[in-house]
Amino acid sequence: MGGHNDETLSLTLNIWRQSGPDTAGDFETHSLEASPAMSFLEMLDVVNENLQREGREPFAFDHDCREGICGMCSLVINGKPHGPESETTTCQLHMRSFNDGDVIWIEPFRAKAFPVLRDLIIDRSPLDRIIQAGGYVSVNTGAPQDANALPIPKQNADLAMDAAACIGCGACVAACPNAAAMLFTAAKVSHLALLPQGAPERVSRALGMVEQMDAEGFGHCTNHYECMAACPKGISTDNIARMNREYLRASILSR
Amino acid sequence: MHALRRFLETSVGRKTVLAITGLSLFGFVIVHLLGNFALFSGTEAFNEYAQKLEDLGPVLMVAEVGLLTLFVVHMGLALSLHRQSREARPDDYRIRANMGRSTVASRSMLITGLALGVFLVIHITDFRIKKIMGDPAVADLGQAVVERITSPLGLVIYMGGIIALGLHLRHALQSAFQTLGLSHPRYADNVRYVSAASAALITLGFAAIPLYLLFTGQGASS
Ligand code: FES
Fold it and tell me: Residue B192 burial (CB < 10 Å; 0-12/13-18/19+)?
């Protein structure tokens, strides 16, 4: 529909409504005339403005940067985390990806470890606790080191950078049939394991992060690779193989 | 000991053992298939092969106990991991779309695995246990096998088991390599091709035996 921004889309929206973690939720249906130029979240903003005007409760949903870099937005749109476009966060998804007359289903990411706080907002703090369990490096204070003192092979720098592109949104968990957090954890483990700065904590990191991942109640990986297809940053499941290696190595070397 | 316990308490550790036991069982399946190929040369050749195995005596027993252990550990771990994943999403999506990377084989691992378990019980009671008990029905083992797998019911069960095996292996082999961390862009594609090809070859190999027997008129009725 290239460029015809004046045409509108008549949409039927089924949006998840849930008042709290311990209450049952259900879809609420709304109709909306949307512009193809709107982003998906702008479309939800309009829904909420209309609701407020009518004195009704707006839908709670997560967002922050709206630039695809912070990892705050979520949503499962027509069954897909972050919607139909590949390597695109919900905030970067535009209504031009939909057609006039579409019925759109909007649900929260679902996993036991991600309880629904309200409507479409989920608690993703388990991912923070996985990071706390080992996703850091120790840095000495004092005068900064010479930038070239630590040689890093270009290839490793590239792979580490690719892994570091993970924005921690949790779409991998949402897409995984087992609700596993392997791709997230693997990206974080890989990112640091590939760099010399990550070497001192290499063993404790792999053990700590994997154990925390299980303790949070995520599922196990059966190598469907649905996570990689859902990841808005295109993180590769090669990182999962790397984490499995790291974990095996750490188990053998730990004392 | 502590490190080992810690290892086995995590999903990644248990999956590592799942992959190793799975690959070992895959090795056994290949040997088993090659042994079965003796049927192409007739039931006598098959019986000779079976006798050679029997002659191993205690070695055979150790191997059988080892195999049984592999099966039990593999199935036990798979079920415990499956439970972890079931519990990880108690409230499922109302609308669920496939992202396009999972396959029929990957999604049916539990079902094909359980089917193989059932097949195994039938298979072992039919032949191995009867043989150990000295049941006269399997005195001529080769003939008993031929009659079994070419009878209508036997053929259906056999083919069902082989299809389950093929589907299971189709996902399992490359999955095991990934779990063991043996994935690298340099050879990942080859691992996938070899996995797919060996799953297909093993399925065809097993399926060929009763079909050959039927087409050459050596079936149950002959
Ligand atoms: S709102 Fe920041 S990534 Fe979508």
Answer: middle
